[in-house]
Specification:
This protein has 2 domains: 245 residues, Rossmann fold (3-Layer(aba) Sandwich), CATH 3.40.50; 38 residues, no CATH class. Helix content is 44%, strand content 24%. The strands form 3 sheets. A 6-stranded mixed sheet has the order 5-4-3-6-7-10, with helices on both faces. A two-stranded antiparallel ribbon has the order 1-2. Strands 8-9 form a two-stranded antiparallel sheet.
């Protein structure tokens, strides 16, 4: 992609995504990711309905009246986006390909983080880590993240989710929010999900295309596996073949959901030809309700 074309594309995305993040996501993002903890602010007299666990017994004993401690959120948060650029993410038969969807969701989250004065970083990976941008604040930093999402090419077909998560654990020095965007066409990453979720707040975003689940009746077709490069023929006119094709996808999706659920991590599934905003809003609302 030419530099001038890239700059125009980044500006176009910035205008569209900034409006979207301000209108829809900033409040939801703020409540879903509450920061590292709480810091003491002041004490005030106990009022009916206050949590008795917040009573400051030293002040209460000294004054003879019940007082409680008031805390404020430590707002600074670190967000790391882990974006899959493996061969299978370049597939998109029903709309934008999965890589475009991953890039746009990353941009929305990055601009939302900037609006909340949070740090945001980026890890691009395929069969190995491709590019790491350490978390920082600021508009120029977010624009760099968007540029790299648009122009970085994957160097391999496969997906090493375990390696990407291991890399992220090694570079992050404090508890962070880690968003893993992938189609999860990988193997042997279950333990890495569990380890990551213990150390950080982990969110998975499963990006997929409708044709990966529902095969149209087109007669015999040659199918190429984007991860392995292997090719084989499928008789798409056979209802049993189409049913088996759908079952394989559903089983893989169910295993992915189970892996995240067992690890106590969030997962949202987004189809590339459908609006992603409602799914992200539901994710934010779910996390906000759990935090109350």
């Amino acid at each position: 992609m030419e530099i001038s074309e890239l700059i125009k594309k980044v500006r176009k995305i910035e205008i569209r995504i900034r409006r979207l993040s301000r209108q829809l996501f900033v409040g939801g993002y703020h409540s879903a990711f509450k920061g590292r903890g709480m810091s003491f602010s002041e004490v005030r007299q106990y009022q009916f309905g206050d949590d008795v666990r917040a009573i400051d017994w030293n002040v209460t004993a000294r004054t003879g009246e019940a007082y409680i401690k008031i805390f404020e959120e430590e707002r600074e948060q670190t967000l790391l986006l882990l974006a899959d650029l493996s061969g299978s993410t370049f597939f998109g038969a029903q709309g934008p390909d999965k890589r475009e969807l991953i890039a746009e969701i990353c941009a929305v989250l990055a601009f939302s983080a900037e609006a909340n004065n949070d740090k945001v970083g980026l890890l691009l990976f395929a069969d190995k880590p491709l590019l790491y941008i350490p978390p920082k604040k600021g508009r120029q930093h977010v624009l760099r993240i968007v540029r790299e999402l648009l122009q970085t090419e994957g160097e391999g077909l496969g997906t090493d989710l375990a390696g990407a998560l291991r890399f992220a654990r090694n570079v992050l020095k404090q508890r962070s929010v880690c968003v893993l965007l992938s189609d999860f066409q990988a193997a042997d990453y279950e333990k890495s999900i569990a380890v990551m979720a213990r150390r950080h707040e982990l969110i998975g975003i499963h990006c997929w295309d409708a044709l990966e689940r529902d095969l149209p009746d087109l007669g015999p077709i040659r199918w190429r596996d984007a991860e392995s490069g292997a090719e084989h023929w499928i008789d798409s006119s056979d209802p049993a073949q189409r049913r088996r094709y759908r079952e394989i996808f559903d089983q893989r999706q169910a295993r992915t959901a189970q892996n995240f659920r067992k690890s106590g991590a969030d997962l949202v599934s987004i189809r590339s030809d459908q609006p992603y905003a409602p799914h992200l809003l539901q994710l934010f609302e779910r996390r906000s309700s759990h935090a109350i």
